[in-house]
Amino acid sequence: MGYLITIIPALLPLLFSFLFLTRNSHFFPWNWPFFKLIHTAYFKSHLVYNKLTQVLAENNGTILLRTSVLNRVDTLITSDPVNIQHILNSKFSIYPRGSEFQRTFDFLGEAVYIKELDVWKQDKKLINGFYKEPHFHSSIPMIIRHTLQNGLYPVLCDLSNQNQVVDLQVLFNRHMLDSTCLLASGVDLGSVRPGFPKCSLLDAMDDIGEAVFWRTVLPEKIWRLQRWFGFGKEKKMKNACTVFTQTLDNLITLSFTNNNANVFNVLKYYGSVVDREALKANLMTLLFAGRDTSGAILTWFFYLISKNPNSKSKILEEIKSFDSPKGHLFFDLDELKKMVYLHCALYESLRLFPPVASVIRDLTQGDVLPSGHRIESKTKIMLCAYATARMPEIWGDDCEDFKPERWMSEKGEVKHVASHKFLGFGSGPWACPGKEMALLRMKAVTATMLHNFDIDVMEGQSISPNVSALLNLKDGLKAKVSCKW
Prior knowledge:
This protein is of the alpha+beta class. Helix content is 56%, strand content 7%. α11 crosses α13 and α12 packs across α13 (232-257). The two termini are 46 Å apart. A 4-stranded mixed β-sheet has the order 1-2-7-4. It has a 3-stranded antiparallel β-sheet with strand order 3-9-8. A two-stranded antiparallel ribbon has the order 5-6.
């Protein structure tokens, strides 16, 4: 969405002139998708995805914006699952992430995430091999137990004893960072402890995330100028990358000097086949992916169940059915896999508020989409997962509602929905390889919290999506925590 915002300032004079010239014309521009989006993106940016969903629905799920007169590139936006299947699966080779994407994420260096398609295909085999490792699967419950026992549970007890308000988004981001760091290096950062100790890596990740967002919003010449002269967000980016690199060097050293044979992690898996710089780049990518996406989903989950008490009651009943003792921590994988309704509720949270609300692609050659749209080479493609999740044709007339039951089959199992209709974990060759692990970690957190604590989301706080690369909550989510026992 940031791509649209970049052209708004340049368009305002044109817009007002056009309005004046056509004010008595039946071609009034507010009937045009382009002008509808500009108004909302500029004046009500927190509603931009809702407006985009509306405009797409009015245009059969696809709009082609002729923006090339301004920046030499047209923009096609679609929520049509058939088009998404075509772009991300059937013809994914001509819809790469593109050179602009690589320049935006150039701080990731040799990370697989930003490599060209041919090189990426080779590295993908190595990534998939990690997630198929028996040692990986046996390490998951150990990591979950460690982070719950040493971090989340004692922190929640302390918050209850102190009668303090906590920002759940901050809590979940810290927890997921500790958990991901353990998986990556075998080292616990310890950022989830009573009082929330200062963690330089957390601050660095926040600064990098903010700078990346502004790289997608500002013209490339502007942010490159900032980097050249060392001011603005790019100055913070440079300092943050230095902190991040130093932390990664320390983690790699600690991991390789740790002789505990029972610890299986990414660094030990990659260590013999990838050089140190590539290790750091891929570790950085993993830490961002493991922290930000799961942290956002968990925050939206607790907000949604606070507004849907019936669904919350069903989740509590499911957890209660395990007859677990006071203070029980849910880390047993067989136990977690049996929590079907909780699984459905997390999926529903992910559907309504996908962390990656839009997916950007380039086009390397001309193509015709299944919707009939003919698009030229270098057209900017935006796939709107947020709008796809609100299509009555897929999800029914109640698609705006939080309804975990829509994921439940008649047999009481989780329904399968094709990935081009549910983009929560991506689709096609770029689909998330850590999907199952992510769900298990989130189920462990939510089940442990709801079993042992009352989580009361504070009334009266502002709830709106953040206009950034990640669809989290703009002002976080404040809640009171009370121990049940």
